[in-house]
Specification:
Layout (H helix, E strand, L loop, with lengths): L1 H23 L8 E6 L2 E6 H17 L1
Length: about 60
């Protein structure tokens, strides 16, 4: 259980570090990425970006 918590924590840290770079590359502004305001806060649901990055990670994992 502790290992999974560490993996999730590290993944969230990496995502937060690479978010500005990904925005510069155009990720997060793809069709299917939802951005809306609710309760005075801006919400962001990156469905298409998540699918593309998952496919890229899967491809890299298969090649290795």
């Amino acid at each position: 259980m502790i290992r999974w918590m560490i993996v999730v924590f590290l993944a969230l840290m990496l995502i937060s570090w690479f978010t500005p770079l990904l925005h510069k590359l155009g990720f997060g502004r793809l069709p299917g990425d939802f951005r809306f305001k609710l309760f005075g806060r801006e919400w962001f649901i990156p469905l298409t970006t998540t699918l593309l990055l998952s496919a890229a990670a899967s491809l890299v994992a298969r090649l290795l």
